[in-house]
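so i finally got all the pieces together for this one. its two components total, 764 residues if u count the protein bits. some of the lines might not be protein, just check the labels. i wanna see the whole assembly predicted at once instead of chain by chain like last time, that was a mess tbh
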Amino acid sequence: MDLAFTPEEQTFREEIRAWVQANLPADISHKVHNALRLSRDDMQRWAKILGKKGWLGHGWPKKFGGPGWNAVQKHLFEEECALAGAPRVVPFGPVMVAPVIMAFGNAEQQKRFLPGIASGEVWWSQGYSEPGAGSDLASVKCRAERAGDKYIVNGQKTWTTLGQYGEWIFCLVRTNTEGKPQAGISFLLIDMKSPGVTVRPIVLLDGEAEVNEVWFDNVEVPAENLIGEENKGWTYAKHLLSHERTNIADVNRSKRELERLKRIAKAEGVYDDVRFRDEIAKLEVDVVALEMLVLRVLSAEKSGKNSLDIAGLLKIRGSEIQQRYSELMMLAAGPYSLPFIEEAMEAGWQGDFPGGVTANAPLASTYFNLRKTTIYGGSNEVQRNIVSQFVLG
Amino acid sequence: MDFDFTDEQEQLRDAVRKWVDKGYDFERRRRIVKAGGFSRDAYGQLADLGLAGLYIPEAQGGLGMGPVEGMVVMEELGRGIVLEPLTQTLIAGGLLSGYAPEAVQSAWLPKIASGESLVVLAYQERAARYHFENCEAKAALAQDKWTLCATKSIVPAGDQADAFMVPAMANGKMALFLVERTAAGVSTRGYGTQDGARAAEVTLEDAPATLITQQGLTALTHAIDIGIAASCAEAVGVMDKTLAITVEYMNTRKQFGVAISSFQALRHRVADMKMQLELARSMSYYASLKLNAPVEERRRALARAKYQLGVSMRFMGQQAVQLHGGIAVTDEYIVSHYFKKLTQLEMTFGDTLHHLGEVSRQMQDMAGVFA
């Protein structure tokens, strides 16, 4: 048992750090460090920089052009990116659909789709949730009916994150209404430029349109876009969900944001207020404990000796921590988090923010926005069901 | 970075678990509690397993092992809520081999390792609460002989131990001494503690003492940290068993015609218990793995760990009782004893609020496992 990373892992970390420092555009990291709004261009610029280096699919095996890193190396890469202020990689392409295409797609599909994902050229969206299928994902209704060499898709997806930028979308669609709901689901890749696809942004409580509704009205999808077998989509979706286990805790970002919270608390004069400071101290322990939990999972994955099936715990704790730091940041600024001036959340705004500290502008919006974290990806209550199933049987 | 145990560590775990399961069942424990809360016989069996010499160098008759082995052992003793204070023996081994002069080491370490002598830390003073740096005990030197005047409270197995490690002020600076229980001027008043174990008030009136080290505060701080890491590990064992007992009960107990484990309101509590257990286990690893770190880093880490463990312990104990219902507040049923043990461990070597204060005071800009 050893807490320290090996010398090789340390060297690896330093290499990553140097590369990120040299290649992450300063205007982008400035936005990330200050929770300013990121444009599509910001996100894609960083994705393409990573893509060019071969690291956008940093979890990919060598066989598919990835670096073939182990769990610890992936973690170190993610940590260095997060601490340097890199935007989160939009996961739908490289992290979510790509592993499914690798595991269950045919050679033709792999050749056709993976290069565009690896390079960051093609923007992917996720078509899972529906108005009637949130945490109960198996109840998807969006229909895909086979007609010759095509599927005709009709229905609606919702909560499609950044779907307004999407070029392709991977969808869970219903191809069979008989039997168990899980048994009639297929995994289909759909070109969002196809006739009949409509995307409508949903404005969220922070004023941003981060998610969308996507309608499919007699959309024709070539049958060759079906991944694997018809009616086996649920299996593939589960594979996808189990693929990223530690990533979901997002502990690296929370470490960065904890540091930012301290900066804000100092600037707002509450860091030396015992009642406030103790709340930060509690969060600090929460973050360290979560990091230890993540490291335990990574170590288990690396050695393969002890399996540690605690993805649900990572999701619950990670999301609670994200909500808590955003809450404390808002509370640190107190009344000066209340003005809602959208321009002040853009980089380079030169106006006079009430109270004089423009850094306070996005705090409440971030707090509002991060309420999503305990709801999405299987709500925390669903996660508790899973954890208790594991413990109680 | 590696959290796997070696084969030797797994063997050590198995050996201790086997002894706890076979040699220290709930009935034996109950008899020991009734008889005063400490069994020399049981303690001797721990020593026979080599555990008393865990932190004592092989040259002095010990096993010369480190914090990870200490953690493994304490977890297992925690599972059986063993009353005999092995934590104190780990402290004695670490402290004497790290700070005492050669003569003191060779006089005491072999006896501690064999189980012949039990040496415990007597540091708690009435006004200090958890601030052990506030010490009123006085040491005086006359004709090359030290004598101590002190009143120390809640000394584990204090009226059974053979000697005490006692911090006292010598010329305005804390030093650490060894005092034999049978020496002149030593009196003890023993009593039971909430967890069923034994403690004593220890009064020293010009009692003859042997100097362990003039670096009293450094050594005592180290001793407390060894104690924190051991208590964290012990608590993980107690919690692990607490959850197992609770799960078994919930799958058996029927209400409204079904096992109570079928109720979602209760299932979610169990999920939260599992969360606290795994956070606690993670921070117990962290505590033990930081025990040999530079002092500032060590102190910060152990405060974080004990805070997390405190939160987890209180939650686990209270939830276990609630999930059982009325049976859990009886003396007869096993879980009430786990609950009391957790409560006592939370308040040993600094409670949760105390350590929150320590974390808060020691905070730096960056925080993480490695900062």
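The mean pLDDT of chain A is 95.
Chain A touches chain B through 52 residues (CB under 8 Å).
anyway lmk what u think
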